[in-house]
């Protein structure tokens, strides 16, 4: 049952990541596209940690919170750069309350250059699991 759960969650993660990729691939990034990038990032990050949690649970680890899940996933070898994952988690909470243009541009830059590559690496790891 647990194995099925993480695999189902992983399918949703892949879909969300593909939407994020589509938004990031847009040539002209206006305010609406930028808002979409931020929304897709938030959704993808949520699915990322929950997929990691489900897989860790299947492997016998008991994790509950996103921070705990990221730390255990780093120790397990599922992810690298745990500090960036934790930063993404913290920034996601701030992004949910970002309404000014400068903060949105900064968020887009972080997503594009720091967090999206982490999410691709996780996808690659999980595809080989």
Automatic annotation (TrEMBL):
Organism domain of life: Bacteria
Protein name (Swiss-Prot/TrEMBL): Nucleotidyltransferase
Cross-referenced InterPro entries: HepT (IPR010235)
């Amino acid at each position: 049952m647990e194995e099925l759960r993480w695999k189902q969650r992983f399918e949703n993660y892949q879909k969300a990541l593909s939407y994020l990729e589509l938004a990031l691939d847009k040539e002209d990034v206006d305010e609406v596209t930028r808002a979409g990038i931020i929304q897709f990032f938030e959704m993808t990050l949520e699915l990322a940690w929950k997929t990691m949690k489900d897989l860790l649970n299947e492997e016998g680890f008991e994790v509950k919170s996103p921070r705990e899940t990221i730390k255990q996933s780093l120790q397990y070898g599922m992810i690298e750069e745990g500090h960036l994952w934790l930063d993404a988690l913290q920034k996601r909470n701030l992004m949910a309350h970002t309404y000014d243009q400068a903060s949105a541009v900064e968020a887009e830059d972080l997503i594009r250059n720091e967090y999206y590559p982490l999410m691709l690496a996780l996808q690659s790891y999980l595809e080989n699991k």
